[in-house]
Amino acid sequence: MLASGILGYAAETFERIVESGAGALVTKSVGLKPRNGYANPTIVQTSCGLINAMGLPNPGIGEFVKEIREAKTVLDVPLIVSVYGFSAEEYAKVAKKAVEAGADVIELNVSCPHVKETGCEIGQNQKILAEVVEKVKAVVDKPVFVKLSPNVTSIAETAEVVVKAGADGITAINTVRAMAIDTETAMPILSNKIGGLSGPAIKPIAVRCVYEIYEQVKVPIIGCGGITNWQDAVEFLLAGATAVQIGTAVAIKGPNVFKAVNQGIDAYLKRKGFRSVEEIVGLSHRS
Ligand code: DHB
Question: What is the DSSP string of 15-66?
Fold first, then answer.
């Protein structure tokens, strides 16, 4: 799947990603009202990944429903709409409108690492987190995935909270709080100072999170974080993911990464004598 936040909202860009081999698409997070996001610079490239702090810029669900409807007329893969809010009621309102417009799945962003009063501030509070999932589940008749943050003491415990509240799947993980400082100006590079780190640097953290979540809950896990090649994808499947999302590698290497990963997984399964991806999901947990 294409991970959230990489290619925005336009139906045409989604078509290109599907042609490149993605099996599903996740939109950038959308909220109840339009938001401009932070001033530039909003992204910085490091030796091992990207740090970004866009500030959840989006057109608001009222505008975005048009893109969902259009995307649904041209796409033949599931469209997953990422949703954020500043309260459980807001998450539910946005999710309901997204599903009415044609979203196949809702992914709850309860893990943006730096926008105040949403994201991590919701995901790190178990009571509010459960309320968000329950309120969304009460108003949509499509699967609800919850994208979790690694910036917690126990991601397995967080996973248990969202599953008890009704989550149908878990996406693990969102970005890790990070920053970069310019040595010449002696100032933080991002206008927001702190952003979310993605890419190869966070892959081992993400694999560990998927492994721990797999031991705790029984819902499908979608692995995400630093996947750049088929070996990375297989590692996530062995840890317990039933599917994976790719984001930063698409931004850096382009959409052909999907084809390379698909072909690599295929060749690996054949070489090892497996008949399907299911046969290797969680395989590293055997004792
Ligand atoms: C933003 C949102 C995220 O969920 C994230 O992980 C990083 C950045 C943003 O819009 O700024």
Answer: HHHHHTT-S-EEPPPB-SS-B--PPSP-EEEETTEEEE-----B--HHHHHH
- Cβ of 171 less than 6 Å from ligand 1: no
Q: Model pTM?
A: 0.97
Q: Is residue 48 among the annotated active site residues?
A: no
**What is residue 284's DSSP assignment?**
G
Nearest CA residue ID for atom 5, ligand 1: 112
225 lines ligand 1 (CB under 6 A): no
Two tokens, residue 129:
């987190």
Question: Cα 89 from chain centroid?
Answer: 21
Between CA 213 and CA 193 the distance in angstroms is 31
Query: 3-class DSSP state for residue 3?
Result: coil
Could you read off the pLDDT of 197-247 as tens digits, one per residue? Answer: 999 999 999 999 999 999 999 999 999 999 999 999 999 999 999 999 999
State the DSSP code for 44. Answer: E
